[in-house]
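Researcher: I'd like a candidate sequence for this fold, 353 residues long. If you have to choose between options at a position, lean toward the conservative one.
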């Protein structure tokens, strides 16, 4: 909805009113620069801009129309500063490795000073969000999940909201696994392997609340696949056996296809010194661009408001040139909402997905 407003000549903010919020839309018309609304207009076209209004909620900025630039409301520099539309597949391992910590003291420093979360022992959601954000992996097209880690901190997909992963546009992800099977010993090789970028939520209890029995819920992302085909993650670990508690942030092997006994999923997180997670099942959340790359087939896509060749290329991790070529477009093409286009295949191996 915010995108539609921007495309029709408004800047849009969310403004809280008690326990709810409303859209505040400022029309870009002659004289608005000299009105009481000029602060709202100017702040929208700043990278981290926010108007002088305590009730405003930060929103994801949208790419301006050409006429807005021509009229002097926003500069071309805004687009390059705010929107990194690099269509290359994200490097999650590089993004995650900057947060590695070999001691609880260092893990708390990273959590509090670099991630912005108070507790290193329960930072799995904020850490997953931070790595995803650092890797420039959130979709452009819809949603407010890239402005803060809140949706990852409060994630409990089975019990909160009207659909899995409430707060995320269902057009941006696939829920590829929802199972009550125990995560440890799960036969990923037969039932469907994890791929780079997959986000997994493992359940620590059979209902919404933790029982305090050594089981814990956890959220992490597959950050890469190594030469032995092992699925890797950068995640927080909490040691709780032998009378000594410790915590750290490590790069770990989650599992190797065909091996249902080793790796963090099967061993460390199966009560071997680190508690138990996934005893009551798990969900796997997969961005649609990952599904597209795995399937290796072109697909039809319906253009939505505010989208360009560059934003679509970014969301599907294919080059803008390949979209232009497969659709026989000119380089100056202007897409229209509702238009059907083809998303081409990106030929990569599964290890590169």
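Model: Candidate sequence:
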């Amino acid at each position: 909805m915010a995108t539609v407003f921007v495309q029709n000549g408004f800047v849009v903010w969310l403004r809280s009113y008690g326990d709810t919020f409303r859209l505040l839309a400022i029309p870009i018309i002659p004289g608005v620069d000299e009105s009481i609304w000029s602060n709202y207009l100017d702040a929208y076209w700043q990278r981290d801009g926010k108007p002088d209004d305590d009730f405003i909620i930060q929103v994801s900025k949208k790419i301006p129309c050409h006429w807005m630039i021509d009229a002097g409301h926003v500069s071309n520099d805004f687009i390059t500063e705010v929107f990194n539309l690099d269509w290359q597949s994200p490097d999650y391992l590089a993004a995650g490795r900057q947060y590695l910590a070999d001691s609880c003291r260092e893990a708390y420093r990273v959590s509090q000073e670099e991630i912005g979360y108070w507790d290193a022992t329960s930072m799995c959601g904020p850490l997953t969000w931070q790595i995803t954000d650092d890797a420039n992996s959130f979709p452009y097209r819809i949603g407010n999940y890239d402005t803060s880690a809140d949706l990852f901190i409060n994630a409990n997909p089975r019990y909160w909201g009207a659909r899995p992963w409430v707060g995320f546009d269902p057009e941006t992800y696939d829920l590829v696994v929802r199972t009550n099977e125990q995560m440890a010993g799960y036969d990923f090789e037969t039932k469907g392997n994890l791929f780079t970028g997959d986000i997994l939520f493992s359940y620590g209890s059979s209902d919404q609340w933790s029982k305090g029995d050594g089981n814990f819920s956890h959220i992490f992302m597959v950050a890469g696949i190594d030469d032995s085909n092992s699925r890797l993650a950068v995640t927080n670990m909490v040691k709780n056996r032998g009378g000594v508690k410790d915590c750290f942030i490590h790069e770990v092997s989650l599992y190797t296809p065909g091996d249902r006994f080793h790796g963090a999923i099967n061993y460390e997180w199966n009560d071997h010194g680190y508690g138990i997670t996934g005893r009551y099942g798990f969900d796997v959340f997969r961005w649609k661009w990952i599904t597209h790359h795995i399937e290796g087939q072109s697909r039809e896509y319906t253009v939505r408001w505010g989208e360009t060749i560059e934003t679509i290329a970014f969301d599907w991790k294919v080059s803008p040139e390949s979209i232009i070529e497969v659709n026989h477009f000119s380089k100056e093409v202007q897409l229209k909402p509702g238009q059907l286009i083809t998303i081409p295949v990106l030929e990569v191996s599964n290890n590169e997905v």
